[in-house]
């Protein structure tokens, strides 16, 4: 029933190098919480990819950068399933440019359709 403990979400994070690691998070965790947790619990076998600060860790879900305040719950991720995200180190997020963005999306390299 409704009295279940808060569900946890299993995230499999993939580095650019192809290494993966699974972590459990709660739906209330935001992208920046996840970055900090991963930074604080950096896997031994990710040593070569170690970053200097959790602030440059970015999550990519379905090809889109997640802003730091986006929670897993807001993404409506499936409970009890493993959700795959990419973890990359980037100083800054690409600035959303409200003008010209539509034209860029039409001619963008991505063939996938983003339905907002």
TrEMBL record:
Superkingdom, natural source: Eukaryota
Cross-referenced Pfam families: Rad60-SLD_2 (PF13881)
Record's keyword terms, sorted: Cell membrane, Lipoprotein, Membrane, Methylation, Palmitate, Prenylation
Stretches assigned to the Ubiquitin-like domain: 9-87
Key word Cell membrane present: yes
Subcellular location as annotated: Cell membrane
InterPro entries, A to Z: MUB, Ubiquitin-like_dom, Ubiquitin-like_domsf, UBL3-like, UBL3-like_ubiquitin_dom, UBL3_Ubl_met
Membrane topology recorded in Swiss-Prot or TrEMBL: Lipid-anchor
Keyword Calcium: no
Gene Ontology CC entries for this record: plasma membrane
SUPFAM superfamilies: Ubiquitin-like
Protein name: Ubiquitin-like protein
Organism per entry: Gorilla gorilla gorilla (Western lowland gorilla)
């Amino acid at each position: 029933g409704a009295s279940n403990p808060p569900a946890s979400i299993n995230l499999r994070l993939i580095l650019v190098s192809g290494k993966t690691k699974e972590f459990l998070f709660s739906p209330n965790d935001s992208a920046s919480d996840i970055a900090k947790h991963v930074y604080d619990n950096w896997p031994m076998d990710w040593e070569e990819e170690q970053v200097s600060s959790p602030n440059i860790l970015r999550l990519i879900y379905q090809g889109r950068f997640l802003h730091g305040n986006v929670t897993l719950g807001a993404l409506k991720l499936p409970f009890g399933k493993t959700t795959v995200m990419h973890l990359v180190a980037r100083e800054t997020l690409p600035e959303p440019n409200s003008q010209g963005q539509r034209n860029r999306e039409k001619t963008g390299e991505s063939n996938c359709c983003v339905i907002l």
